[in-house]
Structures are given as C-alpha cells and as structure tokens.
Amino acid sequence: MRKFRVALALIIAISCSAALAAQKPIQKLLPASGFKGWSIVADSYAYGKELGLTEIYDGGYKEYLDAGVIEAAKQMYQRKKAFADVTVHRMKSEASAKAFYAKQLKAAGKDAKAMPRPWTGFTWTTGGSVYGHLSYGDYYVTTTLTSKDAAGAVALMQEVGGKIKGVKPSNKTR
Amino acid sequence: MKEKDKLGTETDARGITRREFLQGAAGAAVTAGLVGLGTGFDIEEVLAAAKTPKSRVVVVTHKKVLVEGWQADPKVMQAMIDEGMKRLTGEKTALAAWKKIVKPDDLVSMKPNPVGGVNLKTHQEVSDACVNGARLAGAKEDRVIVWNKSQGVPEAYKGWSDAYEFPNGKKTRIGNILDKHTTCFINLPVVKAHWGKGYTCTLKNHFGTNDNPSELHDWESATAPMWENVAYLNNIPAIKRCTKLVIADATRPLYSDGPGDKPAYRWDYYALILGKDPVAVDRIGLDILDDKRKAEGMSPLTWGRQSLEKAAEIGVGNYDLSKIDLLRVNLG
User: Fold this and answer.
1) Are B119 and A146 a contacting pair at CB < 8 A?
2) B209-241: per-residue pLDDT in tens?
3) Closest by Cα among A144, A160, A161, A152 to A38
4) Torsion angle in degrees (nearest 10) through CA of B302, B303, B305, B309
C-alpha cells in the first residue's frame, strides 16, 4: 500500500511539473488561484503573441502592437460576486512600457490614484469598477475589477510585480 | 434564397419558415386588398414587399439592471429578457416565447462575447437566462451549450468546417459546432465601437466562431476590408440557417476606442436589444452608438455602417429602418 501511495505521489508530482513546464513563462507571472481569496475562473486563460494578441484584445490588438507589446497573458478570477481580469504584457522595452503607462495615466486624468511606493502604478475607480495599471521594467500589468475594490486591484498588481521582480535577466520570458 | 435546414424546414435567408412567410404575405395581401380598393394598388408590389417582411427589434431598458459596476441584478435582467422575448415573438408568456424560438430536439448553442474583459463582456445573467429559457422550451440539458472560440465546446462538436471562400478571396473556417451541429444559435454580443470607425455587435461576434479572425481584421485593407469580411462571414449558410435569436448587451455600451474596455467611453444605457435578424439588431445598436458619438462631438462609425449595408445587400438581414419594426419597452 505504501509503495502504491509513493508511486501515486510521484505520478502526481510529475504530472504537475509537466503541466507547469507547458505553461508559457509569462503565465507564471499571473497570480495563482487562491491568492487573497481569488480563484481562477475555468477556461478563462488567454495568451497572445504578435497577431495572436487578438486572442486577448480582438480587434484592439493593433493598439497594443503599436505600443510595443510582444506577448501577453490574461486570466480571469472570481471572489464571491466580484470578478477580476489580470493581464501581463511583455513589452519591447522599458521605454515602451513607460510610454504606454503615461498614455493610460493621461486617460484616467485627475481620478488616477497612485499606488504606494516603490511601484509605478495607479488605480482608476469609475462607473463602480476599478481599473489598475502597473509598469515595471519591460513589463506592463493591467487589472480590472467589477467592484470598487481599489485595494484588491493594488494587491493583484503587487503580486504580479513581485513575481516580475523575481525574474532574473537570464531567465526572462524570451 | 431558400434552403432546407437540418430539421427539413424550408427557410429563407433570415431563417423565416415558409409558414411564417405565407402568414406575413397573406396578411399584407389582405391589407392591400382593403386599402387598395379602387386606388390602383399594385398587388405585385405588395407581394414583393411581403417577401422582405419587417424585422422586429425590441429595445428593453431598466435603470436598475446594474447594481454595482458591471454587476447586474439577475432578477431585473430576467424580467428584461422575459418582456423582450414576449414582445419579440408576440406571445403572452415568456415560456410560449421561448417555445417559438427553441424546439425540444434542437441543439442550442449560444455565444457571448467575453473579449472586453470582466467589465465589458456579455453579462453572465444574459446567457444564464437564455440557458433557462432553452431548457424551459424543452431542450435537453446536454444540448444547450454556451461557447466562445474553442472554450466550452464539448469534445464531440470540436473541430473546424471546410474552408469557406469569400468573394474577395479571403477564406475562413467556422467551428463544427456551428457548421454541423447547432440547430438553434443564440448570438449574445455586446454593443461596442471597434478600432477606428469600426463597430462590433452581432455580426462581428462571429469572429469568435471562426478559426482565423486575425487574418480578417483589417478595416482599411484595399482588397479585403474587415467591414466586407464581417458581412461575408455572416452569409455562410450554416450561420444564416441556425441563427434564431440575438440578445445584444447594451447596458453600458462602449462608444469609442473599442473593442477593449475604455472606461472613459462608456455610458449607462441600461438596455438589451432583442431580435431575430442580426443586421436589424446591429443597425439599432449602431444608431445608439452614433447618437452618443454625435452628442460627444465625434464622427460616425462609418466602417460599421458599411459592413451592415453590405450584409443587407447580400441578404443577411434588413438594414433599412423602413424594414425594421422597432419597439422600445421601458420597464423602470
């Protein structure tokens, strides 16, 4: 019986690591299911690269291509009645991430609320929902919540930002 | 254009049965007979007009449909759909209305639009209400499917059709679920401006049922512009044949810079738009957006309009307001 359990555990471990290996590196930057009570919505993961950005942005992909997005991964989460989208974009350069950030900040105008230091990010609460933007190195992170939970948006972006911080230059998602 | 659908019912381009057509034509002929007595009324003209009966479109509004942000009140949404279905079909109860759309042996599939993200996707409450409606009408549980791209498609219905070629040379394949299996398709789009002067609603929602949307996505292409591709895609026989209902989510439309969510260009409209004719529904949705754009000092969504005109020209549905029977219902 004990041998069987060990074998089963090994099979599960191997399956899990195989599944993780099949993930695009950028997917690993998204919050894990269970983070602060957010669970992943089934079948809600989307990934796009170059023209494949239509998988995430449909016809809006041009705006992101023009802004310098190389690839992006998106996941939807649910916590009780609230939903959240988190999208991580790998940009051509830090400069393109900063430029895109500046554009979004301008759109939000005076309603933008800066994230706590050291993060370069903001939230924008409008229409009863929260929109969040974060620029970090050559990554750009967005989140959208269906409720006015700005703190929730900040936490989700900080989680992704922390993971991006941990990406060593030699191990970047290229 | 007439063809046999999978149930062997003879339908025209908009899925109108021979029986429905004859009822409409007979009514028109009787009216013409009464009105036209001694006036030289041309019966041929009346019969010709009866061949393209008006498409009913119902716009149902309720100001309490949104409770917080994008979250909807399911009871209010259900009430809006019930009333819209009754007005659309002319039935006295929602159950009778659903039975007019869904038959017990149908494979019912419906496609919401999730592209705009959590605050701009078709409300879950809309697809839930449609699933309930289809089930009430007698459709079996495992034959009511909500899907988008390959997500939600059961294994047995996966895969792609043979390639369809558009007159402009572009090719596409649509999901087997739509091409070979669905007998009752319910399109559940969101009313949105698309990139530039484009527009996305019912017709464009089929860019989530085909295999190569990125290859058809250029509004400004000289040889195969997207406005044309959208029209041709909806002219694929399987799509025309099985499309039985459209419920467009216009609770908080996007009037510029779509199709992704741009909160600066959203406004509360609190509406659902119901119809059987996808072009007619899209026409009403487009007018709503262009009215808002005009009020904001913006130019109209001309590419979207071109697309609908093309779709009407090739027989997908009615674009002309004179051929649309628009009903507005305010529930609160």
Assistant:
1) yes
2) 999 998 998 888 999 999 999 999 999 999 999
3) A152
4) 130
Instruction: Say if CB B116 and CB B258 are below 8 A apart.
Output: yes
Nearest Cα of chain B lies from the Cα of A78 at a distance, in angstroms, of: 10
At A138-152, the pLDDT tens digits run 999 999 999 899 999
CATH topology of domain A25-171: Protein Transport Mog1p; Chain A (3.40.1000)
When pLDDT is averaged across residues B259-279 and rounded to a whole number, the result is 95
pTM of structure: 0.83
Taking the alpha carbons at both ends of chain A, their separation in whole angstroms is 44
Nearest to A129 among B69, B217, B258 (CB): B69
Q: Does B195 touch chain A (CB under 8 A)?
A: yes
> Where in chain A are the domains?
25-171
Inter-residue contact B234 to B206 (CB < 8 Å)? yes
Report the residue of chain B nearest A129, measured CA to CA: B69
- Please state the ipTM of this predicted complex: 0.75
What is the residue extent of each domain of chain B? 55-330
* Partners of residue B112 in chain A, C-beta under 8 Å: none
In CATH terms, the fold of domain B55-330 is Rossmann fold (3.40.50)
